[in-house]
Amino acid sequence: MRCRVCGKQACVDVKRSNTAFCPDCYQRYFQRQVERAIKKYGMLGPDDRPVIAVSGGKDSLTLWQVLLDMGYQAAGLHLNLGIGDYSASSQEKAAAFAESRGVQLITVEVAREYGCGIPEVAKRTIRTPCSACGLIKRYLLNKVALERGFNVLVTGHNLDDEAAALLGNLLRWQSGYLLRQSPVLPSTHPKLLRRVKPLFRLTEREIAAYGLLRGVDWLVDECPLAADAATLRYKEVLNQLEAASPGTKHNFYLGFLEKGSALTASSPPVELRECAQCGQPTTAEVCAFCRLWQQVKRRKALPVT
Questions:
Q1: What is the topology classification, in CATH, of domain 43-264?
Q2: What whole-number distance in Å separates Cα of residue 105 and Cα of residue 99?
Q3: How far is CA 288 from CA 10, 177, 254, in A?
Q4: Is the pTM here over 0.70, yes or no?
Q5: What is the pLDDT of residue 305?
Q6: Cβ–Cβ < 8 Å for 157, 197
Q7: 253 vs 231: CA distance, rounded Å
Q8: Angle formed by the axes of helices 204-213 and 58-69, to 10°?
Q9: Beta strands at 184-185 and 152-154: parallel, antiparallel or unpaired
Q10: In this structure, are residues 89 and 120 in contact, taking their beta carbons and an 8 Å threshold?
Q11: What angle do CA 216, 70, 23 make, to 5 degrees?
Q12: Could you state, in order of their start, the residue ranges of all structural domains in the chain?
């Protein structure tokens, strides 16, 4: 297998485009895909102050690496979610990356700040661990980044993530989520940061290849609380389709971005107000984050089964 650009021995194949690259050419190809996404959707400008949501896993650390390689100056923001050894190892990987590259990492420990981590929150409420985790991450990433003076939150969502989310939202006709299924979520409130996903054109496999070539050391273990997540089942289905017809994920998600805009064209904007308790943007009088912790506090005195 030869590199399609220079003819040297290839190390990475991209099956959906029936091509392959040597290490140097692949890195340039990967960076072009990221830059193409950034420019097409106006993700990052010269005056922006971006911060990357860093989990310690493959996607977020490789995203941080490629943005640094491309000359973007970005700090990292890590949330320690209190999930035992998994969270401890995640924080170690994120901290080691930041130290080795000489970049800033902001860390927030949820259990220290709020009294308990994700496992206990899930036990004390009616939410599943993934639901509680998603709510807490969305809230804290926005709040902490805003308080630290950043104006763009950058996340490592990839093509596999976006295609799986789209499949799930279509199967359940989650129109509200479909309206927000975009590589860029603009700021619709002074306290709500713009969110961007520069890796949305690239698969997990392609991201891993770039990370390996650039010496990124990430946590390989998956979250122990996510074993039954519906997203994993959707990814498995899409992987089977992709194996039979390379390019399925790309065509599915990018086709939606191109043709699904009609779904949002006539949709009225969501009116946001400030939470009566914390002041963060919400559609209700009290935001979901504050209501979640109210449940935790009410039930903390009860025995956990």
A1: Rossmann fold (3.40.50)
A2: 8
A3: 49, 16, 31
A4: yes
A5: 47
A6: yes
A7: 15
A8: 60
A9: unpaired
A10: no
A11: 55
A12: 43-264
Cα 147 off chain centre by: 20
Phi first, then psi: what are they for 258, rounded to 5°? Answer: -80, -45
Task: Look at the chain and count its residues.
Answer: 305
Joined tokens for residue 261: 């805009």
Which region holds residue 299: left if phi is over 0, alpha if psi is between -120 and 50, else beta? alpha
Query: What is the distance between the alpha carbons of residues 69 and 166, in angstroms, rounded to a whole number?
Result: 30
- Tokens 């998603």 map to which residue? 134
Nearest to 196 by CA among 144, 168, 157: 157
Sheet strands side by side (includes 184-185):
105-109, 75-80, 50-53, 152-154, 194-196, 184-185
- Would you give per-residue pLDDT tens digits along the chain (305 residues)? 899 999 999 999 999 999 999 999 999 999 999 999 999 999 999 999 999 999 999 999 999 999 999 999 999 999 999 999 999 999 999 999 999 999 999 999 999 999 999 999 999 998 889 999 999 999 999 999 999 999 999 999 999 999 999 999 999 888 778 888 899 999 999 999 999 999 999 999 999 999 999 999 999 999 999 877 889 999 999 999 999 999 999 999 999 998 876 665 556 677 899 999 999 999 999 999 999 999 999 876 555 44
Rounded CA gap, 179 and 146, in Å? 24
Q: Which of 210, 53, 215, 20 is nearest to 138 (CA)?
A: 53
**Number of Cβ atoms within 10 Å of the Cβ of 43:** 22
Alpha-carbon distances, residue 75 vs 158, 213, 247 (angstroms): 20, 22, 33
Q: Please give the DSSP secondary-structure letter assigned to residue 303.
A: P
Is 3 in a helix, a strand, or coil?
coil
